[in-house]
C-alpha cells in the first residue's frame, strides 16, 4: 500500500492567485473554490508573517507544522510561491520544492504560449512533475 | 533552517546549462532583426520591438537564472549589477561584462562587453544608422530586474557596430517597488 508522502502541491503567483493545484491521493482532496480560497489565505498569512517578524529581513513562512500534516513553502525572489502539504516529518521537501521550481522555469516559463501569472496548463509540466513525484515516492519507500 | 546551497560560479553555471551552436544563435537573431526591418520599415519601431521582445524574454529568464544559480537576495544595487555581469551574462551569453562608471548614489552603472555573440559577422549598412542592433539585451535586463522589484532604465552608450570600441549599456535604477501587502494600515 503506497502511502502518499505528499498530499497536495500549490503554486501561487506574486499577486496571490492560484496558478497550479495538484492533489495526490484522496486524503486532503479539495474542490476548485476551496483550493483558490486556501491559496489566497496562504498568500496573506505569508505576507503578514513578514510584518510580524521582530527582526527585519524576514522572508516569510518556510514551514507550518500541524498535528497531522506539514506544509513546506518556497518563495522565489520573483514572488512566486510553491508549497506542498505533506505527511508530518516527510523528509527532503525543500529539495523537492527546488526541483519543482526548476521544472516551472523549464516547462512553464519557457513555453512561449504560457501567459505569465495565468493558470498553468502545460502538459509537459504535468508530465515531468508526475515523474519527479513518483521518483521521490520510490526513493522514500525504498528505504 | 534548510541548509543553503552555495551559489555557483560563472564558469560552473555556464558548464551546467545546455548550449546551442553559436552560428545558429547569431543567424537566428540576425533573421529576427532583418524580418522586423522588413515588416516595420522604421528603424525606431524596430528598436522598440527589440526592446519589447527582450522585456518579455527577461521576465521569463530571471526565474531560470535564480533557479540554476542559487543566488540569494542581493543587499544593494551594486551586488545586483555584479551578479548580472558575472553570472547572468555568463550563463546566457557565455561572456562576462565588466561593471564600471558608478555614479555617486550607486544607482547607475555601465556594463561593458568586449565580446558579444549577437553581433558576430554583422556589419550595419548606411541605411540602418540609428538601429540599436542589440536592443534585445537592454529589454532583457529591464524585464528581468522588474520581476525582482526593480524599475530600471537601460540605454546604449557605445556600440561597436556604430564604430565604437566596445559595447556599453548604461543601467539606471529608478526605484525599488517591493511587493504590496494585501492589508494596508490606513484602510
From TrEMBL, chain A:
SUPFAM superfamilies registered for this protein in UniProt: SNARE-like (SSF64356)
Gene3D superfamilies registered for this protein in UniProt: 3.30.450.70
Keywords, ordered alphabetically: Endoplasmic reticulum, ER-Golgi transport, Golgi apparatus, Transport
Pfam family name, one: Sybindin
GO biological process: endoplasmic reticulum to Golgi vesicle-mediated transport
Matches recorded under InterPro entries: Longin-like_dom_sf, TRAPPC
Locations listed in the record: Endoplasmic reticulum; Golgi apparatus, cis-Golgi network; Golgi apparatus
One term under GO cellular component: endoplasmic reticulum
Subunit structure: Part of the multisubunit transport protein particle (TRAPP) complex.
PANTHER family linked: TRAFFICKING PROTEIN PARTICLE COMPLEX SUBUNIT, TRAFFICKING PROTEIN PARTICLE COMPLEX SUBUNIT 4
Family of the protein in this entry: Belongs to the TRAPP small subunits family. TRAPPC4 subfamily.
Protein name: Trafficking protein particle complex subunit
Automatic annotation (TrEMBL), chain B:
Keyword Endoplasmic reticulum assigned: yes
Presence of keyword Flavoprotein: no
Annotated GO biological process: Golgi vesicle transport
Predominant localisation class: endoplasmic reticulum
One Pfam family per UniProt: TRAPP
Gene3D superfamilies: Trafficking protein particle complex subunit 3
Annotated localization: Endoplasmic reticulum; Golgi apparatus, cis-Golgi network
Keywords: Endoplasmic reticulum, ER-Golgi transport, Golgi apparatus, Transport
GO cellular component, one term: endoplasmic reticulum
Assembly notes: Homodimer.
Protein's job: May play a role in vesicular transport from endoplasmic reticulum to Golgi.
Family: Belongs to the TRAPP small subunits family. BET3 subfamily.
Protein name as annotated: Trafficking protein particle complex subunit
Amino acid at each position: 500500500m503506497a502511502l502518499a508522502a505528499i498530499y497536495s502541491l500549490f503554486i501561487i503567483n506574486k499577486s496571490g492567485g492560484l496558478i497550479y493545484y495538484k492533489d495526490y491521493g484522496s486524503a486532503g482532496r479539495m474542490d476548485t473554490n476551496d483550493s483558490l480560497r486556501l491559496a489566497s489565505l496562504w498568500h496573506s498569512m505569508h505576507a503578514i508573517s513578514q510584518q510580524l517578524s521582530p527582526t527585519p529581513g524576514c522572508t516569510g513562512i518556510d514551514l507550518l507544522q500541524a498535528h497531522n500534516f506539514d506544509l513546506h513553502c518556497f518563495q522565489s525572489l520573483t514572488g512566486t510561491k510553491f508549497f506542498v502539504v505533506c505527511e508530518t516529518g516527510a523528509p527532503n521537501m525543500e529539495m523537492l520544492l527546488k526541483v519543482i521550481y526548476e521544472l516551472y522555469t523549464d516547462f512553464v516559463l519557457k513555453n512561449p504560449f504560457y501567459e505569465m501569472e495565468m493558470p498553468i496548463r502545460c502538459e509537459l509540466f504535468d508530465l515531468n512533475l508526475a515523474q519527479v513525484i513518483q521518483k521521490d515516492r520510490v526513493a522514500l519507500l525504498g528505504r | 533552517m534548510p541548509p543553503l546551497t552555495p551559489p555557483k560560479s560563472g564558469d560552473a553555471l555556464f558548464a551546467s546549462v545546455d548550449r546551442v551552436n553559436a552560428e545558429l544563435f547569431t543567424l537566428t537573431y540576425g533573421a529576427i532583426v532583418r524580418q522586423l526591418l522588413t515588416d516595420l520599415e522604421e528603424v525606431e519601431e524596430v528598436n522598440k520591438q527589440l526592446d519589447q521582445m527582450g522585456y518579455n524574454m527577461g521576465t521569463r529568464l530571471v526565474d531560470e537564472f535564480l533557479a540554476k544559480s542559487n543566488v540569494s537576495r542581493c543587499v544593494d544595487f551594486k551586488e545586483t549589477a555584479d551578479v548580472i555581469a558575472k553570472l547572468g551574462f555568463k550563463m546566457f551569453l557565455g561572456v562576462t561584462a565588466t561593471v564600471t562608471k558608478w555614479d555617486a548614489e550607486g544607482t547607475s552603472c555601465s556594463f561593458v562587453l568586449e565580446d558579444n555573440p549577437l553581433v558576430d559577422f554583422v556589419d550595419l549598412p548606411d541605411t540602418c544608422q540609428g538601429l540599436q542592433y542589440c536592443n534585445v539585451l537592454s529589454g532583457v535586463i529591464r524585464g528581468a530586474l522588474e520581476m525582482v522589484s526593480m524599475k530600471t532604465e537601460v540605454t546604449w552608450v557605445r556600440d561597436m557596430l556604430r564604430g565604437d570600441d566596445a559595447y556599453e549599456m548604461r543601467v539606471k535604477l529608478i526605484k525599488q517597488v517591493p511587493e504590496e501587502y494585501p492589508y494596508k494600515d490606513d484602510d
